[in-house]
Amino acid sequence: MSNTAVIPFSTTLHVKDTCLCLHAQRAARALARRFDAALKPHGMTNQQFSLMMALNRPEPPTIGPVASLLAMDRTTLTAALKPLERRGWVSVEPDTKDKRGKRLSLTDAGMAALSAALPVWVRLHAEVEDALTAIDADSLRRGLVEISNPPHRGP
């Protein structure tokens, strides 16, 4: 005989209906598909658009702050930069202040590609916000930021 505990199906339904992680993942995937489709004619994905936008700063950032902003580990960010670098949209150069570090910047071609894609993002983003009926966009953003930046607990 098995001693395996049985989880009632009602618990499965409860988790399906209430799990914040599941709902956030489903929403993120649905949004990513919409933005990927809209940005495809510009030769980029939503992730690439976000990454390139994260590089649009007065001074070229290092990998750490960009990885933190995008909630990526450094290895994943480095891999995501490779196709953009191959396309000539992003430049990865040694940090003049710390030779172990790298500075990331948009090239002129990258800025042109990002500039061409931005109106598509603006239009679709407005459509998504306008379609929200259960919550206003600012409240949703505040809640998502709160979840992604929990207060520090511990020593």
From TrEMBL:
Residues 17-149 form the HTH marR-type domain. This is MarR family transcriptional regulator. PANTHER family: TRANSCRIPTIONAL REGULATOR, MARR FAMILY (PTHR33164), TRANSCRIPTIONAL REPRESSOR PROTEIN-RELATED (PTHR33164:SF105). One of its GO terms (biological process) is response to stress. One of its GO terms (molecular function) is DNA-binding transcription factor activity. It comes from the Bacteria. It comes from Ectorhizobium quercum. SMART domains: HTH_MARR (SM00347).
